[in-house]
Amino acid sequence: MSLMAQGSQFAGSSAAPVPCQPSLASVGDYVTLMKPRVMSLVVFTALVSVMIAPGHIHPVIGFTALLCIAVGAGAAGALNMWYDADIDALMSRTSSRPIPRGRMAAGEALAFGVVLAAFAVGVLGVLVSWLAAALLAFTIFFYIVVYTAWLKRSTPYNIVIGGAAGSLPPVIGWAAATGGISVEPCLLFLIIFFWTPPHFWALSLVRAEDYARARVPMLPVVAGAEETRRQILRYSLVLVPIGAAPWLLGYAQALYGLTAIVAGTLMVMFAWRVRKNREGACAVRAAYHLFGFSILYLFVLFAVLLIDARLGG
Fold first, then answer.
1. Rounded-to-integer distance, Cα 148 and Cα 214, Å
2. Which domains, and CATH codes, for the chain?
3. How far is CA 149 from CA 72, 208, 264, 281, in A?
4. Helices within 128-250 (DSSP H only)
5. Scanning 69, 208, 247, 259, which has the fewest C-beta atoms within 10 Å of its C-beta?
6. Quick one: DSSP state of residue 216?
7. What is the per-residue burial (b if ≥16 Cβ within 10 Å, else e) of 219-242?
């Protein structure tokens, strides 16, 4: 039986209705709804793309583009929490979110997410670029409909395919700055796309019981921890040349190339530790170390790409 077939047994229905209660939501709850940690990474990768794009973008237009991308990411986070309220309530990592805790009605989150999405796409289109607005709209749609409502509950490859949504911000930023799409933002897309599986699978190794309880077919639940470790190592190995591709293809200077190779090698080393440590506290520690380093990896790669582009003129 294929992993896709095995994963289908975990498919669930849409979010269960939450009893209507007076709203107790605070400003902090609405901020939480927008997933600020995810938003910060989205904005940073889009910012780097805007900054390295050819030509000149007016600072006000650039700020508007980044604001709309941030708001769009927040909208996707809010709509994700609305739809996933049923499984969030079953997982220790997400049970304290506003809807499962009863501080916010599901309808509030839905309305908040829809308003944010409409604002972000509309303003980006009118003031910056309709191509960038269309890409932002597609990203929100893909994250909510394709990933959250379909893939997440039906296949262990949810993160692999669904990772396309989180990989698009550099493309949106480039389109906002130039009005078009070229090879460079596509390379940035590929870096994030191949980075996403080992990043999330490292966490899912530790949270496998949570996902199983919520009937979410993450790879460790469906295929087991051993197969997940193999896949983490494979994706990490592929990530090394993908991460260095902007330099290998002549779009970045030697500083970026050296950083990409060193950071990619370290990523493989952390993945190898996950592969070798299979039991007990050592396995948990290795998975957490890879998860933490993967965030640093992406931040350093994009930061050095920006520095490299500035130094190289």
1. 14
2. 26-179 (1.10.357.140), 182-313 (1.20.120)
3. 18, 20, 33, 34
4. 130-141, 158-167, 169-178, 183-206, 208-213, 219-222, 225-248
5. 208
6. -
7. bbbbbebeebbebbbebbbbbbeb
Which secondary structure element, helix H or strand E, spans residue 261, and what is its range? helix 254-276
Residues listed for the chain: 313
Tell me how far apart the alpha carbons of residues 143 and 163 are, in angstroms, rounded to a whole number: 8
Torsion 47-237-187-190 (CA) sign:
negative
Distance between CA atoms of residues 190 and 83, nearest Å: 28
Buried-state track 249-267, b at ≥16 Cβ within 10 A, e below 16: eebbbebbbebbbebbeeb
Amino acid at 245: A
User: How far is it, in rounded angstroms, from Cα 303 to Cα 159?
Assistant: 25
Triad 188, 189, 195: Cα angle to 5°: 90
- Any residues with CB less than 8 A from the CB of 241 and at least 6 apart, and which? 248, 264
